[in-house]
Specification:
Channel that opens in response to stretch forces in the membrane lipid bilayer. May participate in the regulation of osmotic pressure changes within the cell. Keywords: Cell inner membrane, Cell membrane, Ion channel, Ion transport, Membrane, Transmembrane, Transmembrane helix, Transport. It is a multi-pass membrane protein. The chain is mainly alpha-helical. It is built from four helices and two strands. It has a two-stranded antiparallel ribbon. A hairpin with an 8-residue loop joins β1 and β2. The protein is elongated.
Length: about 140
């Protein structure tokens, strides 16, 4: 098997395709969460603590000199990233919780009941039917 055929067989496996779809959806979800945190959560939170924009929070380690930019410790961006992470983690937790609840409901469903055993009369009628069928297939010669 050539390298290209081997790679094609690997890439077309269901797990690889599922993983690729998951990564693409995860990246899009990350953008949504970043926008939610940056545009919805952080402005009111900044207003509550005195109009501070978290993304601007930084400590200047070394002031700018000429063409050299200042060296900043941007802890505000870190705080925003932590909020992003917490929201993503909470969303994933809720999805898994719902999936587990659905799985437990499926497991809790009783198994379909086995059909009841035939009564004695049904067993006897079945035996008579089988005997009659045998006689019709192998008739006895007349006496």
């Amino acid at each position: 098997m050539s390298f290209i055929q081997e790679f094609k067989a690997f890439a077309m496996k269901g797990n690889v395709v599922d993983l690729a779809v998951g990564i693409i959806i995860g990246a899009a979800f990350g953008k949504i969460v970043s926008s939610f945190v940056g545009d919805v959560i952080m402005p009111p939170l900044g207003l509550l603590i005195g109009g501070v924009d978290f993304s601007d929070l930084a400590i200047t380690l070394k002031a700018a000199q000429g063409d050299t930019p200042a060296v900043l410790l941007s802890y505000g961006r870190f705080i925003q990233t932590v909020f992003d992470f917490l929201i993503v983690a909470f969303a994933i937790f809720m999805v898994i919780k719902v999936m587990n609840r659905m799985r437990h409901k499926e497991e809790a469903k009783p198994a379909p009941a086995a059909p009841p055993a035939p009564s004695k009369e049904e067993v006897l009628l079945g035996e008579i039917r089988d005997l009659l069928k045998q006689q019709n297939e192998n008739p006895r010669p007349p006496l």
